Amino acid sequence: MLFSCKKKGCDIPEEIARIPVQVEMERLEKPFFEASSKQEIAQFLDRHPMFAERFLQRKGYPSDSALVNAMYALATNPELKKLADEAGQAFGDMAKEKQQLETAFKFIKHHYPDFKEPQVKTFVSGLNQDLLVSDSLLVFGLDFFIGKDASYRPDTYEYILARYERPNMVPAAMLLLSNRFNKTNFLDRNLLAEMVNTGKAYYFVKSIMPCTPDSTIIGFSGQQLADVSHNEGRIWAHFVEKSLLFEKSPFVVNKYIGERPNTPEIDPTSPGRLGTWVGWQIVRKYMERNPKVTLPELMADNDYQKIFNESKYKPEKR
């Protein structure tokens, strides 16, 4: 019997579905915006010391009273309260996110039995921080992910804004979580190494969230993903013909890995971060050709050259 996500190719094996995980999602924005005095804010901070330390950066304030004053100003700001109400309406009880996290944590525990699921909190910080992921704490800044109808949206470029949507929230957090397992060689930073490193990260997210579309994991639109898949051979030919794979110049590497609205060197209509997508395809090919390699073995392997060679990645140019 399979615990199914009702989508082709994402049935969850019974042995994984049975793994016990505890996801308690604490909605901190509610008590925070109900506070009506500095004393109540101080009590809120005392009740959530790890959250105050990591998400609110308690140490960055000259004194606790400075932090209390700053937080009191936020909690009583009518515009911010409005944003918190919008987040409450948009997200409801967050049953969907809870389910996504439970499934992802089950898969992680299956591969890493010592994994301990972090505490999960939500907050509305006035577009101050979108996500915090550490070993013991995961915080979703809901105000970033309300979507197009929010009164206020993150102050960023349109192409990045497109990723600040509710379906992208949990995959984005899991991508950050993958850093804990993704071993990389910091001494050898060429384009191919960066491609494979980011490819491993996306592969990790897809492995623990098999029901999530590739487009949501990488933050492309469905159309962009269809286009790059169709032109995979052409895209790869660009890297090979221009001898870019072992390029170490951060400026060049960033053209294909970093945030950009598009990659005009390949095609003005192609999305940015194209190198990361190609890296994902290389890692996929490697894992298809090496079915005995486990997810932890892949993530611990920092020999990008070996992964590339053994992937025998060579898409046909159409």
UniProtKB/TrEMBL annotation:
It comes from the Bacteria. The keyword Lipoprotein applies. Keywords: Lipoprotein. NCBIfam families: GldB_lipo. This is Gliding motility lipoprotein GldB. It comes from Pontibacter aquaedesilientis. The gene is gldB.
